[in-house]
Write a structure and sequence with these properties.
This protein is mainly α. The chain has two domains: 139 residues, no CATH class; 86 residues. It has ten helices and no strands. The protein starts with a helix and ends in a 14-residue tail after the last helix.
């Protein structure tokens, strides 16, 4: 089925280990051997600095965004009869709205899975926050913007990227349901899964925060010396 092919493509897209490739290609450093040992943008900021960190952050965001946009390709192909979802029939003008949103969630989620367990990096990736954010931008730019505001404000106040990520992730179900009145089941399930995933992938950070051992990294403002 066409959708399965695109889901695998989304996984491969998410599997691109931006942090590892940028670190090795331009700095001769494997970021997994330094800092937190995580192959994500935050660790690149911590180990290599703001320029490479920003590059990796943008690349990881693009992975999630482009994966969601693959649903547009399937929607386009469905108009010519190339797609026939088992979930429901397709319309002559393209996918029905429920199928379209389901594919957006599916492809975006596959890219996040690719980031977490990348085939190109021996299945050891990052936490997926940036890729999730790119997915959010494609799904609802307003929700993404407000979640980003929560992250930035928290990071500025506390100096912790992990606390910013946790609060931003936990705010997503509230934003979708209470602020924007979202009713699509696929997106609602996704919003709660995001909150749960953020908690699971940051459990070590939570332990370090409780123990007072978490490193501070201010992405927006310079650290005070």
């Amino acid at each position: 089925m066409l959708e399965i092919t695109f889901a695998l493509l989304a996984y491969l897209l998410g599997s691109i280990p931006s942090a590892i490739w940028v670190g090795k290609r331009f700095y001769g450093i494997d970021v997994r051997e330094h800092g937190s040992g995580n192959a994500g943008a935050t660790n690149v900021f911590r180990v290599l600095g703001k320029v490479p960190g920003t590059i990796v952050l943008v690349l990881d965001i693009l992975k999630g965004y482009m994966a969601v946009r693959l649903a547009d390709v399937v929607d386009f192909l469905s108009k010519d009869g190339f797609s026939n979802l088992a979930l429901s029939h397709t319309e002559v003008s393209g996918l029905v709205d429920g199928d379209y949103k389901f594919l957006m969630i599916l492809f975006g989620t596959m890219s996040v899975v690719g980031h977490l367990i990348p085939i190109f990096a021996k299945f050891k990736g990052g936490k997926g926050v940036a890729t999730l954010f790119g997915m959010l931008i494609a799904l609802n730019p307003a929700v993404a913007g407000l979640a980003l505001a929560v992250f930035v404000i928290t990071n500025i106040i506390t100096g912790y990227v992990s606390i910013g990520s946790l609060l931003a992730g936990l705010s997503i179900p509230f934003l979708f349901i209470r602020v924007f009145g979202e009713t699509d089941l696929s997106i609602l399930i996704f919003s709660f899964l995001v909150a749960g995933l953020i908690l699971v992938t940051h459990r070590k950070n939570i332990k370090r925060l409780i123990a007072g051992e978490e490193a501070k990294t201010r992405i927006v403002m310079k650290q005070k010396k």
